[in-house]
Design a protein that fits this description.
The protein is an all-alpha fold. It is globular and about 55 Å long. The protein is built from 10 helices and no strands. About 70% of the residues lie in helices and about 0% in strands. Keywords: DNA-binding, Transcription, Transcription regulation.
Length: about 200
């Protein structure tokens, strides 16, 4: 995520983080369903309107790194070195994201998400949105000559690799295994090799 540079931007970022921290603390202590928006606003010492200026919904409070996650995925495409292949760049970024989300400190948060139907639905819609943003970044790269369908499919596979790894006994191995298949699928969608030239008739 872009680091705020101006005083106003830094203040907004600090307020947003304070709200997210307060929400997570209350959710983990008392349960997601029993805590209301007003409870979070009071805990963070902000007005409800201020809370909603930073977060569109109660579910969004749990996924406060949503925007950062999406930016990291798209930047894995747009910010990779010249001529660096796409799939290894995505593989590396997904591995980093999985390491972060499978740390011991994240376990209570994911348990809360997994046991809340509302949060699971939100997570699913978020994954679809991330996949579309990633597909758009892939399709916009002039060096990656693939159809729109291929770009969307590969993007969804990459997002699913994250989800599958999070639930696996060995997350890093799950990412590697899934990306082995993604690499094969990406190669299969590439342009066909040029046919060998035939000799001209004399």
């Amino acid at each position: 995520m872009t680091v705020p540079t101006g005083r106003r931007e830094r203040k907004k970022a600090a307020t947003r983080q304070k709200i997210a921290d307060a929400a997570l603390r209350l959710f983990l202590e008392h349960g997601y369903d029993t805590v209301g928006i007003r409870d979070v606003a009071a805990e963070a010492d902000v007005a409800v309107t201020t809370l909603f200026s930073h977060f569109a919904s109660k579910e969004a409070l749990v996924f406060e790194q949503d925007e950062n996650f999406e930016q990291r995925l798209t930047q894995a495409v747009t910010g990779r070195a010249p001529h660096e292949p796409l799939i290894p760049a995505l593989h590396r970024e997904i591995q980093a994201l999985v390491r972060h989300c499978t740390a011991d400190s994240a376990a209570p948060i994911w348990h809360m998400i997994d046991t809340s139907p509302a949060l699971r639905r939100y997570e699913e819609s978020m994954r679809l949105r991330h996949a579309e943003a990633l597909a758009t970044a892939i399709a916009a790269d002039p060096d990656l000559t693939r159809t729109t369908t291929a770009c969307r499919a590969i993007a969804r596979f990459a997002i699913d690799a994250f989800s599958l790894a999070r639930e696996a006994a060995d997350p890093q191995a799950a990412v590697d295994e899934t990306f082995h298949m993604i690499e094969a699928a990406w190669e299969a969608t590439g342009p066909s090799p040029d046919a060998p030239e035939t000799a001209s008739p004399e």
